[in-house]
Specification:
The structure is a single chain. The chain is an alpha/beta fold and 178 residues long. It has one domain: Rossmann fold. It has 7 helices and 5 strands. Strands 2-3-1-4-5 form a 5-stranded parallel β-sheet, sandwiched between helices. Helix 6 links the parallel strand 4 and strand 5.
Length: 178
């Protein structure tokens, strides 16, 4: 486990990427969500590893990308914030009929014990070319992620539905950087 690797997770459309951008604007290194990067790449090349076409292929790619992200971040000094990550990918893989979350992750706790979770926030949720599922599906995904975090022994810190600046301050204070 690395206290330098801080995971932001939770409901799709809950403000994770906006929060990540605010943290980056404050000078912190960030790692973008694997799923969004994969969808963008697959759409550009008319690939099939898309959650609405082949969830298992998508989730396998997300696991590999998240593992690669963790490896690449090893050389970064200080805190690095991750938008989703290996846990989210393992949850998706398990729910697509792949191995269990524990089989995918093994004994590794890749992230800091405290994980920041954005709750479902209907007013923020919006579909786009890369997010085609509806709000109810996003809420179900959120529930699966929370259960996995609990089972894996992570401490969930739910971020309130407040401005992105207040969320960023809360995260940084919890991380001991404010």
């Amino acid at each position: 486990m690395s206290s330098r690797f801080v995971l932001l997770t939770g409901c799709s459309g809950g403000g994770k990427s906006t929060l990540l951008k605010a943290l980056e604007d404050r000078g912190f290194p960030i790692v973008q969500e694997p799923g969004r990067r994969i969808v963008s790449e697959e759409l550009a090349r008319q690939g099939k590893a898309l959650p609405w076409v082949d969830m298992n292929a998508f989730a396998l790619r997300a696991v590999k990308m998240a593992e690669s992200d963790l490896q690449s971040a090893q050389h970064i000094d200080g805190i690095t914030f991750f938008d989703r990550g290996l846990i989210d990918a393992a949850v998706a893989l398990a729910h697509s009929g792949g191995p269990t979350i524990e089989e995918t992750l093994g004994e590794t706790q890749a992230y800091w014990k405290r994980v920041f979770v954005v709750p479902p926030w209907r007013e923020l949720f919006a579909n786009d070319a890369e997010r085609r599922h509806n709000f109810d599906a996003a809420v179900q995904e959120h529930i699966h992620i929370e259960k996995a975090l609990d089972k894996l022994g992570y401490m969930r810190i739910e971020l309130p539905k407040v401005s992105v600046q207040k969320r960023a301050e809360m995260v940084l204070k919890e991380c001991g950087t404010l």
